[in-house]
Amino acid sequence: xGSQMGFTGRxxxxxxxxxxxxxYSRSLPRKYKQTKGTKxxxxxxxxxxxIGRVIRENLKSVIFDKADRTMQTRLVGEIxxxxxxxxxxxxxxxxxxxxDRFRLSSESPALSxxxxxxxxxxxxxxxxxxxxxxxxIPKSSFKSPAGTTAVVCRIASVVINVENxxxxxxxxxxxxxxxxxxxxxxxxxxxxxxxxxxxxxVTGMCLEYYAVRHKNTVSTNDKLFKxxxxxxxxxx
Length: 236
Fold this sequence. Notes:
This protein is an alpha+beta fold and 236 residues long. It has helices at 36-58, 69-86, 138-141; strands at 2-3, 9-11, 14-19, 22-27, 120-125, 128-133, 148-161, 166-178, 187-192, 199-213, 216-219, 228-235.
């Protein structure tokens, strides 16, 4: 910024103006023209941010730290990468998201590190998903902190219209297991959800450990025992 005498206004790309008793001049800010490619990338990043927010809002029952900015950034990045090749394309094997096994907590382990059970997620029909949990013994199947008396498994799903970034369906389930040696029978958890063309389904699961402390049942604060992740994602 330079000073000059007695003139205000614009000459070419230089603006002359007065502040107090002094006159100054400065260059006009440079304008950048967006190409079609940069506009598309900007649009898709905005879509990814909104879709990520809708996922977090609907899966909040399985997310322990909702203010985890590292997780939020990673999630938007995964969705943005998927949109690069899937947007405007029909659903196929080549356009499926890679969100399954995405950890919804930056500092927690994977579910498989805390629960030695091979559950299966499937879509027996287009309008529902099914989580099949085999029979197991809680005491030997859960890796738990000392003093644990129960483990709660939560499952949450959301269906999102990708183009308008709106939630069109959601479902929640909760199962409580007493940490003992009694064998738990196999279970099929079914969630009925709309799945029209152009929609993204995301299912998350978490485990929460409970112990008795001073005659009260409380959840553990140990982040090593707060596994939370996406277990299923599909584009229809």
